[in-house]
Design goal:
Rossmann fold, 57% helix, 884 residues, three-stranded antiparallel β-sheet
């Protein structure tokens, strides 16, 4: 299979020379795909197959893995083209069995620099399904709700149109119409006006009620057992990862004449499987598990480890009982395959058809045989050799000698490298220091004030291009290593000082790049930390980038450069990267693990004084969450005394600690000194709600949220909104529902575990005294808070339980809830104010041994306000029971 190689054609004036981008047939790999599709279709169409069976083992993953340069990405691209009908068979790949039926492929590059996130992956799969031409009602209804919460005011079709990777998929033309059709049908079935343009509020409740009641007009959708639960779930990324179950249901329910098999090709999977704690891999695996009627073709450098039971906990499904055909030695397709080196005959065919003149191969037999022998079947070697042959031919006008190709791979790279003009060699050396680059970045790293050398270089075959990445070009990894090795023997080789100067130029150029876009910030941090570590460069601009990283509450993983933190003394770059990684991962694991990593960083003592506050503050924050009150107090005070970038944040932390002790007047005095930088209004809201002054608390939180939104600080706005939802839930249930929905909307784009939990607690407070299952719900939230090491969240859950028991008039339940609050949360004076409130709101005298809070006015006034809130909730509860 071949097509014109435009890059090669435009390197010669000889119009008789024909260059094609020839693809060796990989017939065995295609046979594996064909067999996998045949068997999957047979399983899916068999009687008894249930797409909703979430316990059956999965046999829908075909894996091709192998070393870099072996042709995995090329294989993935050609598979996608061939399955879509875009390539002629030409006798190389036999057609699929007639019984398979229509096949719809979609290919997604998961590399770090591709710019593809999990949301884009889900959208790509839905766009592929759009090619079938039928609505996907359950998925589209859930997606519409997710979209309204997370992309308010941005139409989905406009979002897709502006993203090249998504807009290039054929289904992009059909998605909007299919979604509107599905929504209109659902709206008509439940007697709602329009097309359900807003899947929130009463409209959503009506749909969910119809699903649970199996309304006759919507019974077909109601047969999707988990549809209502997914519609009720907070529309965040976690919920989005379960929506593919709905898409699988929709596909399974299509009429026979419209059925097609989706094939999802996931390339560069090593950039998913090797990421810290497998957070993204867990979401991707969830999609695969929930779509057993879709074939997933995974290509990457490493075999999938999903059959390893030791990954249980990091992945939702791990072990051979879940993935029986991913284990070593499996013989049935689909299974895992090593992508082998090309056979000698494949290499010969490649070289014969890659470059031709007058219809005949430009390479003679001896040259082809020698290149084939030296290549050991590595496709990248063949491509480099072909390009070198063309360059030598262009210079002399004659076919080069066979002796010009008696080279192993490093030697071929070195020879190719030496054939480049001096300025191009300088650029290649410079970009070998970078994971990805743009033309201006390459020029700056090389020390040029003009872009021509870099611009000419990016057309070479050893430069990979990814238009969606923050910087679109990458030097092939094998070439990158070989260039560094070859440079030790070249005539114009660089000295250690030359490499150091180039590293400094590249580092400085990264620092000058615009990092306002999140993807660029992360890429710049990763590359800058690696350069700083390898060449012992001062951290410089990395300090500002690190503080920018922690301000955004998004928390993509930053992986420390190679070398353990424990043992040998880490470099400052390693210590900073470990700090950022720990801070990010605290949103996904127990605070104790984060605290230990940060202690190790501080103990190493290699960070400059200007950065020491970063691990110290977050360690103090972890200690606070873990209930290590004195350690947190000492750490916060030390950061505040440093008067650095996090001083205002630390002073706010001190106020929070004072509030935990019930020292409200002192905390208010300190809060009034924080100003906007220290989130003064949010802190004041934290002080007002325990007094029973709910309106004042809500007003303070709303002001804090609005200030953050005006400043573009989405993370802070989401945090303030979560607090507002919690406070509003004590007094105004309808308003609380709106505030909880808005909190979920804002939190969908950030990663703040405490705020996510606080929003769930707001739901408990809102339903206290109303819903009978509140204690069971409270236990579930408390377990998650304990697992994350969030002591304040546990305390608020137990307080909500006390409120519920008091409203419903259950003395025994109130006693038990108080006991849990005291045992789980109250530690001396810490959180004693919550226990005291449970007595004040019941108009009871707190026990003598309980430390008393210093309230902002008097305990009598505080008790009266809380008693009023309880009485209001009782009346509301009685009204709700009568209405039921």
């Amino acid at each position: 299979m071949s097509r014109s190689d435009l890059r090669a054609l435009f390197r010669s004036n000889d119009r008789e020379v024909k260059a094609v981008d020839y693809f060796a047939d990989r017939r065995d790999e295609w046979e594996s795909v064909a067999q996998s599709l045949s068997r999957l279709v047979h399983v899916v169409r068999a009687e008894g197959f249930d797409v909703q069976d979430l316990e059956a083992p999965r046999t829908n993953v075909l894996t091709f893995y192998g070393v870099g340069g072996i042709g995995k990405s090329t294989l993935s691209r050609w598979l996608a083209r061939h399955l879509s009908g875009g390539l002629p068979v030409e006798g190389h790949w036999p057609p699929l069995d007639d019984g398979i039926g229509p096949v719809v492929p979609v290919r997604v590059d998961l590399s770090r620099d591709s710019g593809v996130d999990f949301e884009s992956l889900v959208l790509a799969i839905r766009l592929a399904a759009a090619e079938i031409g039928r609505p996907m009602p359950t998925f589209d209804l859930a997606l519409q709700r997710y979209w309204e919460h997370n992309h308010a005011g941005e139409p989905l079709d406009e979002y897709v149109r502006r993203r090249t990777r998504l807009s290039s998929l054929p289904g992009a033309r059909n998605l909007s119409g299919q979604m509107q059709s599905a929504l209109a049908d659902v709206a008509q079935a439940v007697a709602l006006p329009g097309t359900m343009g807003q899947v929130v509020g009463q409209g959503l409740r009506t749909v969910v009620h119809a699903l649970r009641e199996r309304h006759h007009r919507i019974r077909a959708l109601a047969e999707c057992d988990r549809f209502a639960d997914l519609l009720e779930a907070a529309p965040d990324q976690d919920a989005l990862s379960f929506y593919p179950h709905l898409l699988a249901w929709d596909l399974a329910g299509l009429p026979t004449k419209h059925r097609a098999t989706l094939v999802v090709l996931l390339d560069t999977f090593e950039d998913v499987g090797d990421r810290v704690h497998r957070d993204l891999e867990r979401l991707v695996q969830r999609v695969v598990w929930l779509m057993p009627n879709v074939l997933f073709v995974v290509t990457g450098r490493n075999r999938l480890q999903w059959d390893d039971p030791r990954l249980e906990g990091q992945l939702d499904w791990a072990g051979p009982e879940c993935w029986p055909q991913l284990v070593g030695g499996a013989t049935r397709e689909p299974r895992q395959h090593t992508v082998g080196y090309l056979s000698a005959s494949d290499c010969e065919t490649y070289l014969s058809q890659r470059l031709t003149r007058d219809g005949r191969p430009m390479m003679d037999d001896a040259t082809r045989h020698l290149i084939t022998a030296n290549s050991h079947g590595l496709p990248l070697y063949l491509d480099l050799a072909a390009m070198r042959f063309l360059d030598l031919y262009r210079r002399s006008g004659n076919a080069p000698s066979v002796h010009d190709f008696n080279l192993d791979f490093p030697a071929l790279v070195a020879r190719t490298f030496r054939d480049l003009p001096p300025e191009a060699r300088r650029v290649v050396r410079s970009i070998s220091l970078l994971e990805s680059f743009s033309v201006p970045l390459a020029s700056a790293a090389a020390g040029f004030d003009h872009d021509a050398p870099a611009q000419n270089l990016v057309d070479r075959p050893f430069i990979e291009q990814d238009p969606g990445a923050p910087w679109p070009y990458r030097l092939h990894a094998l070439v990158r290593d070989a260039v560094r090795e070859a440079d030790s023997t070249s005539d114009d080789r660089w000295t250690s000082a030359d490499w150091l100067r180039a590293a400094q130029r590249a580092f400085d150029a990264l620092g000058r790049e615009d990092k306002s876009h999140r993807a660029r910030l992360i890429s710049a941090l990763r590359q800058g930390l690696a350069l700083s570590h390898q060449f012992a460069l001062p951290l410089g601009w990395l300090e500002d980038a690190a503080f920018q990283y922690v301000d955004d509450f998004v928390w993509e993983p930053i992986e420390p450069p190679a070398g353990p933190l424990n043992g040998a003394t880490p470099t400052p770059a390693q210590a900073l990267a470990t700090t950022l990684s720990a801070v990010a991962q605290r949103q996904r694991r127990h605070r104790g693990s984060t605290a230990q990593q940060l202690r190790d960083v501080l103990q190493a003592g290699v960070l400059p004084p200007s950065l020491e506050e970063l691990p110290r503050y977050f360690l103090a924050e972890c200690d606070r969450d873990l209930g290590n009150f004195q350690e947190s107090l000492t750490g916060m005070q030390r950061v505040a005394d440093l008067d650095g970038r996090l001083a205002a944040t630390a002073r706010r932390g001190l106020v929070h600690l004072g509030r935990r002790l019930g020292e409200f007047p002192q905390a208010r005095e300190a809060a009034l000194q924080l100003g906007a930088e220290g989130r003064q209004d949010r802190v004041l809201g934290d002080l007002w709600w325990p007094q029973g002054s709910i309106a004042l608390a809500c007003s303070s939180y709303a002001t804090s949220r609005d200030q953050a939104l005006a400043a573009g600080q989405i993370g802070e706005a989401a945090l303030s909104q979560a607090c507002l939802a919690f406070a509003a839930a004590f007094q105004d249930r309808p308003r609380a529902a709106e505030q909880i929905a808005r909190a979920e909307e804002l939190l969908a784009g950030v990663s703040i575990q405490w705020a996510d939990t606080q929003t769930r607690i707001a739901g408990l407070v809102r339903d206290a005294g109303i819903t009978p299952d509140l204690p069971e719900r409270a236990d579930a939230v408390a377990r998650e808070a304990v697992a994350a090491g969030l002591t304040s969240s546990v305390a608020y859950v137990r307080f909500a339980e006390c409120l519920h028991a008091l409203v419903v008039g259950a003395p025994d339940a109130l006693t038990s809830a108080r006991q849990r609050l005291m045992e789980d949360c109250v530690n001396g004076a810490e959180f004693a104010y919550l226990a005291e409130l449970t007595y004040l709101m019941a108009d009871e005298e707190p026990p003598d041994g309980l430390p008393r809070a210093a309230w902002l006015d008097t305990a009598t006034h505080v008790g009266a306000r809380w008693a009023g809130l309880v009485e209001d909730r009782r009346r509301e509860s009685a009204t709700a029971r009568q209405g039921a």
